[in-house]
């Protein structure tokens, strides 16, 4: 999970969503109150679940470590095949705009000639 979260694309996408969420809560106080209550509820459930699951995780730790190692290797292979993963959302959008501008210019030139 940490490996996926550390990918630039995932990290920047989370930042964009987080900023939009915070902005929405600010602009709409009623919605902000509902979201705040939901956040507290999720936090309480998360804490309760963590205390219950901790003994099970301790027992499964060697297996989790092995799965984590395989997942990390798989993520590395996926990263090699998908060049977008190390890029941020902003960088992908910028590259896409440049590519589209270039293609539109080529089409305009072809049509005019």
Automatic annotation (TrEMBL):
Its main location: other. It holds the Pfam family Perilipin. GO terms for cellular component: cytosol; lipid droplet. One of its GO terms (biological process) is lipid storage. The keyword DNA repair does not apply. It is found in: Lipid droplet. It comes from the Eukaryota. Keywords: Lipid droplet. Belongs to the perilipin family. This is PLIN3 protein.
